[in-house]
Write a sequence for this structure.
């Protein structure tokens, strides 16, 4: 460098190669960024789970939920989109719990299930997978597990509502 | 001889700086254009609206200011509908350029007329 003229010192082919590489990296980075889809499946399954809980826990009645219960009607859900598109899944279980110790009593009862039933297993796989292996399941639907306690004012009993929701809407 | 060397050094430095400014100017222009793409905004708003609907309780109303969408549509010379709800399929399409736009589904069943678009106030009201 020392023996070189000023023009050669700054405007060397290396400088242009450097710029070219920087430019290409920026362009590739931007293209990757623009093509990457904002993955909202996790947020979506969470929002749906909370929304279902709100709907089911408002004026909670065990008898209502266990006798010919239609969750689509009660929670104003679009049956067509949930059953036919294959991008959503939900299941709702009820279990009686002891009011003092919150210990579970008896068996869990499935009160509603809908959408892409195959997602049930996909969610189980993900919840039992070790943390470091969870990256392998990027193509599987994103799931949310929600457990909350509710109280039936009519029969004066406590219940646990378990909600599993999944979304695989990636367009 | 010494002064000729000095002039060469100055010319080289000036050339170097000019080329630098041109290069980074091009990069800045490219990034600025890429960052305001209509497709990203279409996707962003379609998803946001669908998630808002998913999380809404019954008998609620939400107002979303969509000034940005009007601005982008105008910039892209698009004069059609910006937000197109499909009540049958529970989906919302956001369109800022001529084309398909971006469609996203929600799970609730909305009554026709639940989407109210106010072009003057540039706001979208969703009623459940």
């Amino acid at each position: 460098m020392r023996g070189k003229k000023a023009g050669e010192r700054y405007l060397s082919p290396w400088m242009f190669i450097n710029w070219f590489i920087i430019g290409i990296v920026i362009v590739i980075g931007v293209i990757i960024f623009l093509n990457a889809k904002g993955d909202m499946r996790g947020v979506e399954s969470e929002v749906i789970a909370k929304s279902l809980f709100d709907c089911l826990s408002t004026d909670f009645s065990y008898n209502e939920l266990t006798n010919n219960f239609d969750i689509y009607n009660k929670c104003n859900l679009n049956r067509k989109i949930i059953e036919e598109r294959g991008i959503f899944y939900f299941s709702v279980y009820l279990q009686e719990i002891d009011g003092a110790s919150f210990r579970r009593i008896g068996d869990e009862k499935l009160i509603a299930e809908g959408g892409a039933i195959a997602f049930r297993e996909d969610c189980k796989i993900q919840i039992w997978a070790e943390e470091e292996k969870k990256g392998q399941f990027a193509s599987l639907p994103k799931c949310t597990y929600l457990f909350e306690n509710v109280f039936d004012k009519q029969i004066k009993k406590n219940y646990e509502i378990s909600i599993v929701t999944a979304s695989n809407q990636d367009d | 001889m010494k002064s000729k060397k000095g002039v060469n050094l100055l010319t080289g430095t000036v050339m170097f700086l000019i080329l630098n400014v041109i290069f980074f100017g091009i990069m800045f222009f490219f990034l600025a254009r890429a960052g305001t793409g209509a497709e990203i905004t279409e996707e962003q708003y379609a998803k946001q609206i669908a998630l808002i609907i998913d999380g809404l309780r019954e008998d609620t109303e939400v107002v979303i200011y969509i000034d940005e969408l009007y601005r982008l549509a105008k910039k892209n010379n698009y004069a059609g509908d910006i937000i197109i709800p499909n009540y049958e399929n529970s989906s919302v399409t956001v369109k800022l350029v001529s084309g398909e736009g971006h469609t996203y589904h929600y799970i609730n069943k909305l009554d026709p007329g639940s989407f109210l678009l106010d072009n003057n106030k540039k706001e979208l009201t969703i009623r459940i």
Helices of chain B lie at 2-35, 38-55, 67-75. The radius of gyration of chain B is 24 Å. Chain B has a mean pLDDT of 86. Chain B touches chain A through 40 residues (CB under 8 Å).
